[in-house]
Known about the structure:
Blueprint: E1 18-26, H1 29-38, H2 44-47, H3 49-53, H4 64-73, H5 76-79, E2 84-94, E3 104-116, E4 123-133, E5 139-150
Antiparallel strand pairs: 1-3, 2-5, 3-4, 4-5
Amino acid sequence: MDIEQRGLWFEEFDLDARYLHRPGRTVTEADNTLFTTMTMNTQALHLDAAWSEKQEFGQRLVNSMFTLSTIVGASVAQLTQGTIVANLGFGSVVFPHPLFAGNTLYSETRVLEKRLSASRPGQGIVTLEHTGRNQDGTVVAVAVRTTLVRCAP
Length: 153
């Protein structure tokens, strides 16, 4: 028997669940530098250790777009692998605390709402709230994302 890993069909998303995406991801200086330079973000807060040491946090900050990408990416295998039709957008994204190289990022998701699509039979709209926490449990990012997901065949 073959079993293929997949995300959840529309009907399987549970409004009462908190989905914990594991393992966490320990972020390195190389991750931050590579992502920052690949995306052409020249912000010294991400690249210049000497300058950043003199700023408010005393060290470089992990690029917030890396943090966002990682918390959403960590949810894929469990929630949307092979079942998503499209990412429809982000309603809000906040970064209440910085993430630093050497921190471990943990991601979790709650389903805020879901409804069948009025215009796309066999598909539904699911609004997800992704939360990223560091190894101490401090929230470093929260993103509300709306997705279009397939219904069970």
